[in-house]
C-alpha cells in the first residue's frame, strides 16, 4: 500500500517550503510558495478546525490547490529534488511567518467587523 494522502500532502508542502528557500526557483513560484508554505506550515488555521466543515474545508482546498499550482510553476526536475529532500526530512518545519499572517488576517477581520457594526450600536 502506498503512502497516505496526509503523508503525500505533508511531503508536498515541505517541498514547497524548500522551493521557496532555493534561489533556483523562479520568482513567481517563490512568491506564491511563501504564501502557501506559510499557511500550510502555520500551527494556526485561517478558519479554526473547531468550526464544523468550514474548519477542515480551508485546509482541504487551499493547501492542495496552492501546492498544485506550485508544481506547475517549478521545473519538474527541480521539484523532484525538493520532494526527495522533503521525503528524507524527519521533522515538519513550522512557519512563524504563517502564524503572523493568520493572526493578522483574523485581527483585520475582527477590526472590519467592529468598524461595520459599531455604527449600528451607537
TrEMBL record:
The domain of life for this entry's organism is Bacteria
Keyword Transmembrane among UniProt keywords: yes
Q: Which cellular compartments is it found in?
A: Endomembrane system
Q: What is the topology of this protein in the membrane according to its UniProt annotation?
A: Multi-pass membrane protein
Q: Which UniProt keywords apply?
A: Membrane, Transmembrane, Transmembrane helix
Q: Which InterPro entries match?
A: DUF1232 (IPR010652)
Q: Which organism is it from?
A: Sphingomonas donggukensis
Q: Where is the DUF1232 domain?
A: 30-64
| Protein name (record) | YkvA family protein
Instruction: Kindly list the residue ranges recorded as spanning the membrane.
Output: 99-117
| Main subcellular location | membrane
UniProt keyword Nucleotide-binding present: no
